[in-house]
Amino acid sequence: MSSALEINNERFNAEAAKWDSNKKHVESVEKAFEAIKQHVPAFGDGSSKNLDVLEIGCGTGLLSFLLAPHVRSLVGVDTSDGMIDAFNSKVAALSDPSKANLAAVKVLLEEPNDVALQGASAALASRRGESGHNAPYNFDLIVSHLTLHHIPSLPDIFSTLFKCLKAGGRIALTDYEDYGPEAITFHAEAKRNGVQRHGIKKDEVEMIIDGTGFNEVRVERVFSLRKEVAAENGQPAQERDFPFLICLGQRSARRRESDASKVFQ
Ligand SMILES: C[S@@+](CC[C@H](N)C(=O)[O-])C[C@H]1O[C@@H](n2cnc3c(N)ncnc32)[C@H](O)[C@@H]1O
C-alpha cells in the first residue's frame, strides 16, 4: 500500500505541468501574498529586502516568484519532483538565471541542517558575494501556502520551522480552514486520499504554535476563496466560499517567561 507521501507525490507530479494554468491556484496564491504583506512587519516598514525566506511546499513557485522581488533570498522545499522541475524551468526562463535570488530543492524537511536546504542557501549566499558563513543558514521568514493540510504531524513541522528561524524570525503560513463538515469538499473526492486533514483548525493550530515556543502567536481569517464543489451526499454541485487562515508567530530573541517558568518548576 502507498504511503500518504507517495500518494501526494504521485498526484502533484501529475498536476505540476498544468498547475499554474488553474485560475483558482493563482487567485489563492495572490490572496496569500497580500495577506503575508499585510501581516509581516518587514513589508510595511520597508525592510523586506533584508529577509531570507524559506517556503515549505513551494510547488511550482507561484508564491515564491511573487515574493522573490521583495526579499533578499528565497529557498523553496517540496517533496514532489514534478513540482520542483516546474519551479526550476521557471528559474531557467528568467533573463539571467545565474543572478536569481530564489531556488527550490526536493526535501522532506525535518531538520534545519538538511544538506539540500543548506546547499541551496549557501549557493544563493555565494551568488550575492557572501562567503565564510557558518552553517546552518537560518531564515528571517518562513511561508507556506496550502501545504499544512498535507503534513502528517503539525507539532513536528512547527518544531522544525522554529529551529530553522533566526532569533526574531517569523512564520506566516496560509491554508484553508477546517470550519466544519463542509470543509471536506475543498478537495474533490478523488483527491482526498493523501490529505492529512481537511483544512486547519484555528484553535488547534494556535495552541500548537504557542506550545512550540513562538511569541506573538495569532491565527486569523484573512480571505476566502470561492470555488466550485461537485455534487455529493444529496447536495447539488455549487459554488462555495472557503475561509483561509494565516498562522503567525515569532521566534523571539529572548526566551519566553512561560518557558523559563517551565524550566524552574
Ligand atoms: C496544494 S500544493 C500547493 C503548492 C503551492 N504552495 C501553491 O500554492 O501553488 C501542496 C504542495 O505541498 C507539497 N508537499 C506535500 N507534503 C509536503 C511536505 N511534507 N513537505 C514539503 N512539501 C510538501 C506538495 O508536493 C505540493 O507541491
Automatic annotation (TrEMBL):
GO biological process: methylation
Residue ranges the record marks as coiled coil: none
Pfam family name, one: Methyltransf_23
Gene3D superfamilies given in the database record: Vaccinia Virus protein VP39
Keyword Ion transport on entry: no
Protein origin, superkingdom: Eukaryota
This protein's UniProt keywords: Methyltransferase, Transferase
Molecular function GO labels: methyltransferase activity
Matching PANTHER family: PUTATIVE (AFU_ORTHOLOGUE AFUA_2G14390)-RELATED, TRANS-ACONITATE 2-METHYLTRANSFERASE-RELATED
Record-given protein name: S-adenosyl-L-methionine-dependent methyltransferase
Originating organism: Polyplosphaeria fusca
